[in-house]
Design brief:
Blueprint: E1 12-18, H1 20-28, E2 40-42, E3 52-57, E4 64-71, E5 81-85, E6 92-93, H2 94-101, E7 110-111, H3 114-129, H4 134-137, E8 168-171, H5 176-182, E9 187-190, H6 191-197, H7 205-211, E10 224-229, E11 240-243, E12 255-257, E13 263-264, E14 271-273, E15 283-287, E16 308-313, H8 322-325, E17 332-335, E18 340-342, E19 349-353, H9 356-359
Parallel strand pairs: 1-3, 10-11
Antiparallel strand pairs: 1-2, 1-7, 3-4, 4-5, 4-6, 8-9, 10-12, 12-13, 14-19, 15-16, 15-19, 16-17, 17-18
Helix pairs in contact: 2-3
Bound molecules: zinc ion (3 copies).
The site of one zinc ion has 8 residues, from strand 9 and helix 6.
Length: about 375
């Protein structure tokens, strides 16, 4: 590693990155259809080969270190880096690092002197090994301003009621997007969701709420509404719809897509099983298969095994590369979102649920 000629130590530069959600996607999200158009880094004017870049978010609710990278060339050379520490998938709190250092960091872009550089890397390593609990930092004031939660409350994120999750607390909203979505603040959350919301690069509380729900089987939208039946104690929260009780409707839809308006239930029993010799124009429902050992599919929510998808079943195989693949049939499925899925053929079912007639066929029709 090339060293600083005077001290034998390398310098650390603080590099800013924004928008922080795109930075998180850039470093951790393996999906192939990401929007990274606005992603931008702010570098210092000059650096030497072997210097370290501490990549810090500049627009997140709590500033966070995303990764520490080592440069291969100086500022006149090509861009080439190796990861030195991290990436920290939930972010590493800049406030916690400053507390360890006993002094605030300059805002990015900035170049530290060599002594400060060494202390900063030591503080980041220490924080990585033993993260400071968010309650000690309380950057939003949730601990300082805690108030008792009303009985008969439920967690705004995971939906658990007070009797399932006995401790519910208030979480203060700061993000304009969250405030617009919930229309008020603070929200009531369980302790588990509260800890998730206070990770340095946490999802917003509305994103966390949608994260507990399945993606739309038809268009893969993330924002899906939960349908509540019956007569709840209070008005449904945002992202929840209220449906009346119809005793004669054999199927109870649990979800409705906010984008394409498809309604469905996770219960496979509500849909008619289909044979695998389907005509290729039949729109069917199936669950995605576990990813085979010899196929590389990076993890993403769209490719998650067991997910319900709507589309056409189009099995392929045995493969011409039978030696490599074995003579397995590939149970491919062309999703209505345009993606190709591998599905479990035993889960093929009708895309529309049972009706009263399919559940109770007349003897002369069956
Ligand atoms: Zn919760
Ligand atoms: Zn909170
Ligand atoms: Zn949809």
């Amino acid at each position: 590693m090339p060293d600083d000629p005077e001290t034998g130590r390398r310098r650390v530069h603080l590099v800013g990155v924004a928008p922080w959600r795109q930075a998180v996607d850039f470093y951790y999200n393996p999906d192939d259809d990401l929007d990274l158009d606005d992603l931008g880094f702010t570098f210092p004017a000059r650096w030497a080969a072997g210097d370290l870049f501490v990549i810090v978010t500049t627009d997140s609710p709590a500033s966070a270190v995303v990764v520490v990278e080592e440069t291969h060339h100086d500022s006149t050379g090509p861009d080439s880096y190796d990861q030195y520490l991290g990436p920290f998938d939930d972010g590493l709190s800049v406030r916690a690092v400053e507390r360890r250092l006993g002094t605030p960091l300059p805002s990015a872009p900035a170049t530290l002197d060599t002594a400060s550089s060494e202390r900063l890397i030591a503080a980041i390593s220490a924080e990585e090994k033993s993260p400071t609990p968010w309650r000690e930092l309380d950057e939003r004031g949730c601990v300082a301003h805690s108030e008792p939660v009303e009985p008969y409350s439920r967690c705004a994120c995971c939906g658990k009621w007070a009797d399932e999750e006995p401790v519910l607390v208030h979480h203060l909203l700061v993000d304009i997007q969250e405030l617009e979505f919930f229309g008020y603040g603070p929200i009531v959350v369980c302790l588990t969701c509260h800890d998730l919301l206070h990770r340095p690069l946490a999802p917003s509380s509305d994103d966390l709420m949608f994260g507990f729900r399945p993606l739309c089987p038809r268009c893969s939208a993330i924002r899906t509404c939960q349908v509540d039946r019956g007569f709840p104690a209070g008005p449904p929260g945002p992202g929840t719809l209220l449906a009346g009780c119809d005793r004669y409707d054999p199927v109870t839809f649990e979800y409705r897509c906010g984008s394409c308006e498809y309604e469905w239930t996770d219960d496979d029993g509500s849909y008619q099983p289909l044979p695998t010799d389907l005509d290729d124009d039949v729109v069917a429902r199936a669950r995605t298969a576990a990813i085979p050992d010899n196929v590389y599919r990076p993890y993403s929510r769209k490719g998650e095994p067991g997910r319900v998808v709507i589309g056409r079943y189009a099995p392929r195989g045995p493969s011409p590369h039978a030696a490599a693949w074995g003579d397995a049939v590939y149970h491919e499925f062309v999703g209505q979102d345009g993606r190709i899925y591998l599905v479990d053929p035993t889960t093929l079912r009708s895309a529309e649920p049972h009706t009263w007639e399919t559940l109770h066929p007349r003897p002369d029709e069956s």
